[in-house]
Design goal:
10-stranded antiparallel sheet, mainly beta, 35% strand
């Protein structure tokens, strides 16, 4: 999410509760929230006009913050029993590799809502619904619904769309685990699931690459990740707007800023076998060095998971193998 002259970032929208499939053994339930739809009126964008008035009358705004612990019990400082943390890390990263490969055998719908808010009113929204599929391991997206964006105070940049598409991926696989530090934090109940909690951070940042940094919740029975909360790092430092480099620099022009929000990702058990992401949410105020603070809300839902077996050139069906 980037900030240009006035302000640019991206925000999601809270969504409806996740569907609880009858065949699921357990589900990490997403919090309930209502979608804001009516943000256009009269002078073009009444919420935006109202927001400007509110900002003049109220110099101090309430700062929103994504709640990683919503729906969770207290964190208990208790060591795992019957398994070491190293063994757990090895097992749940192997499960991530398994889920990542298994996901390429599925098609699903991705519904993205990004909003900015002034007070309680939505003053801009980006919306996109796509059908996602895979062919020989490559991800394909077919956009089915994409109304014109009404975002005015923020813009979505290349990194933002990469993050949006990446939330459905599995990053803590066996292949990538050596690049991260895992710190055991304790035990915590999430919805009806007892979990082990780990804090995760990259060992070293690499040029041109983004890493997950945050917290993960691991099912204490099957030793697999059921929830994550964190952000992609690093944020890009403020730079001049590339699109305006060839133009004469305007007096007082504000550098472009990119700030990544914290997002919480919930998973559901699909087909009684795979814990796939189904709901991603962020709701927080992003603080810009060169611009105003902006309340951003983002919701991404993954629905209609359907098994579609990938076929190799030799017509052999590729099947994921349980670790």
């Amino acid at each position: 999410m980037s900030l240009f002259s006035i302000a640019k970032i991206f925000s999601p929208q809270p969504g409806v509760p996740l569907p609880h499939h009858a065949q699921h053994r357990r589900v990490v339930a997403a919090p309930k929230a209502a979608l804001h739809k009516n943000f256009r009126f009269g002078c073009g964008h009444v919420a935006l006009c109202t927001a400007m008035l509110i900002m003049m009358l109220l110099p101090v705004a309430v700062s929103a913050q994504t709640n990683c612990n919503e729906g969770a019990g207290p964190l208990v400082n208790e060591q795992p029993k019957g398994i070491t943390t190293d063994a757990m890390i090895q097992k749940f990263t192997a499960q991530e590799s398994f889920f990542k490969e298994a996901q390429t055998h599925y098609a699903f719908t991705q519904d993205v809502a990004v909003q900015t808010l002034a007070g309680n009113d939505v003053d801009g929204e980006f919306r996109r619904v796509s059908d996602i599929s895979f062919k020989t391991g490559r991800r394909f997206e077919y956009v089915t619904f994409a109304p014109q964006s009404s975002l005015r105070r923020i813009s979505l940049e290349k990194e933002d769309f990469e993050d949006i598409d990446g939330y459905s991926n599995f990053v803590l696989t066996s292949e990538h685990a050596p690049k991260y530090n895992f710190l055991y934090a304790g035990r915590q109940k999430v919805d009806d699931i007892d979990t082990y909690v780990f804090d995760v951070a990259p060992k070293q940042l690499e040029p041109g690459r983004r890493f997950f940094q945050g917290r993960i919740w691991v099912d204490d029975r099957d030793i697999l990740i059921v929830k994550t909360c964190g952000k992609n790092v690093p944020d890009k430092p403020p730079v001049a707007n590339e699109k305006k480099k060839k133009k004469k620099k305007k007096r007082g022009q504000i550098p472009e800023e990119n700030i990544t929000p914290t997002v919480v990702t919930y998973r559901e058990l699909i087909d009684g076998k795979y814990w796939f992401p189904t709901y991603v949410r962020s709701d927080e105020t992003l603080h810009f060095v060169y611009g105003d603070d902006i309340h951003v809300r983002e919701v991404i839902r993954y629905t209609k998971y359907k098994r579609v077996d990938a076929v190799t050139p030799g017509n052999a069906v590729v099947e994921a193998k349980q670790p």
